Amino acid sequence: MILFKALVLSFFLVFLINTPVYSNENQKNLTIYSTATPGSIPSDFYQPNSETESNYPIPGYALIRDKKEIELKEGENKISISDVSAYIDPTTVIFKSLTDPKGTNVLEQNYNFDLVNNKKLLEKYLGSEISIDQNVGNQITTFNGMLLSASGGLILQEKQGNFVSLNDYSNIHYSVLPEGLTTKPTLVWSINAKESGNHKIEISYQTTGITWWADYNAIYEEGEDGTNGSLDLNSWVSIINKSGTSYENAKLKLVAGDVNKVKNTTMIRGM
């Protein structure tokens, strides 16, 4: 037992020491907090779109610190960062300039996570011009007009004033992506800067959808008699990342156990 504990401690020391540190200014620091225990997560969870995945909560979360370089002009700027998690806790997001922390202020912050799909596109285009293709035999007929309804089929009002109801169509053509829809989760800030030029910034936030755990496999081989032998111990760290983005070349730190968070016990009473 003493040998086992010593080997486990040695593993963690080597793992943390050998975690790569990159000199690039654009650097992510990823700290994963986990309450998972070895063998607690079924193997089906590794497979994408499995039933186990949807029914099993990920026992952990992560703190991301992302350093970047951006160009700011004097006055108000609009900054968008799209390589972020889909499960951000928006209340934990912090933006700061490392170049001019006192002169750079956040005026407004938004988290756009309304990802584009066919249903949302149609809803956004209600009252706007749209083009729809319909297969009629071996030919394709195109209808152009204002989209009036997208419930239970499509209803268009053509420029001539005619109304067209389409329950069967092959293609829909959109001119632009409507405001408010994005192809990936995006953080957007309005930043007021006193100093123009290249700024080193740091963005930090917490996200769920990430966890880690360690597994150990021990193989005991008997010696010439029952009083001696050898123990071969292998150890692995497994990380599950379902947060919706990757953390390439991130400096990694792993923390095990429950983390006490301050809970708001204030009750709002009605007047």
Label this structure with key terms.
five-stranded antiparallel β-sheet, 3 helices, five-stranded mixed β-sheet, mainly beta, 10% helix, single chain, 271 residues, 45% strand
Structure description:
The chain has 3 helices and 15 strands. The protein is mainly β and 271 residues long. The chain has a 5-stranded mixed sheet, with no helix packed on it. A 5-stranded antiparallel sheet has the order 9-8-7-6-10, with no helix packed on it. The chain has a 3-stranded antiparallel sheet with strand order 3-11-5, with no helix packed on it. A hairpin with a 4-residue loop joins strand 7 (139-149) and strand 8. The termini are far apart. The relative contact order is 0.26.
Summarize the structure.
This protein is mostly beta strands and 271 residues long.
Number of helices in the DSSP assignment: 3
**What is the radius of gyration computed over CA atoms, rounded to a whole number of angstroms?**
27 Å
List the secondary-structure elements in sequence, H or E. Answer: HEHEEEEHEEEEEEEEEE
Q: Between the first and last Cα atoms, what is the distance in angstroms? A: 62 Å
Q: What structural category arises from helix and sheet content?
A: mainly beta
- Poorly predicted runs: 1-24
Percent strand: over 45%
Average pLDDT, to the nearest integer? 79
How many strand segments? 15
From the spread of the alpha carbons, the general shape counts as: flat
| Fraction of residues in H or I helices | 10-25%
Biggest beta sheet summary: 5 strands, mixed
